[in-house]
């Protein structure tokens, strides 16, 4: 990941944090805790374009964006969980719209969440995020009722946030189009997305 000194400089450029040093330390500490939860054995191709490097960058961007939007601890947990496990159901590196469903299922089959970690509502939101992160926007934002989600606005906001985090790492493919980013603050992280790619070894 980014060296601390470089990351502090990037946070300063954002002009969104009163203390870049403490924010940097908080983000790096959170990243280390969550990144440790993803074992390479969970991934079909750990060194592929949807492998450990991609997951770590999406996690890092998720943590940073969650700070920019001042998310609650529970919402952070949903976004970070999605970040590290959203591609573990992949059986290849090709484009497909069901790997999110397979990833959510595999996460529960492997018991990667502690039993008391999420309540029913939050687990439904997590399922909604993971299953739909790889589907077209046009088909997913009016489907929260199918997941028995009470707060549809919250679920849609978190899904859009996560899709941006995943989308920002399209820099690794060379086809990031910021016009597809759904949140204004996501667009502030484009430079950091490129730096993350530069400072990680795997795709």
From TrEMBL:
What CDD domains does the record tag this protein with? HDc
Give the highest taxon in the source lineage: Bacteria
- Entries under Pfam families matching the protein: HD (PF01966)
Annotated HD domain residues: 52-169
Name it: HD domain-containing protein
